Amino acid sequence: MGPVILVRFRRSFIWATDICRAAPALIISNPHITLRGTVLIIPVTGAKRRRPGYEFHVEITKAECPELDKDSVAKVDQIYCVEDRLIPDQYFICGLELDTMRRIYAKLLRALNFDKLLK
After folding, report:
1. Which string of DSSP letters, residue by residue, matches 18-34?
2. DSSP state of 40
3. Which of 39, 47, 77, 92 could form a disulfide with 71 if both were Cys (CB 3.0 to 4.6 A apart)?
């Protein structure tokens, strides 16, 4: 299951001014093998911010993650490495099921141009 957590986004590591606050994000790395104290995340935002026809915004419905406030999208083209100290304690939102994570990772591999290497 993919953990959706609350992260304190900061302007120092992003240039999108609309998410310089605590916001949901999906952890996409294995914290046991990445650099100690860091995780790779992608932001999760409301579905109304989805760009029509843009394949790298993957829908996460409220049915798939009832703890989210609304239907959302995972922005798989925006990958950030953050220090785990930026993840407030007790801010686990939900865990995404395997089918949802497969959809997200398929688009992530395509965004990284790795999709052809794995065929």
Report:
1. GG-SEEEEEE-S-TTTS
2. E
3. 47
Length of the chain: 119
Identity (one letter) of the amino acid at 117? L
Return the closest-CA partner of residue 21 out of 3, 45, 52. 45
Question: CB atoms < 10 A from the CB of 105, how many?
Answer: 14
Q: Does residue 18 fall inside a structural domain?
A: yes
Residue 79 belongs to a domain with what CATH number?
Answer: 2.30.30.110
Q: Tokens 């302007």 sit at which residue?
A: 11
**Residue 119 domain-assigned (yes or no):** no
The CA angle 76-51-94, to the nearest 5 degrees, is 45
Q: Is residue 8 part of a domain?
A: yes
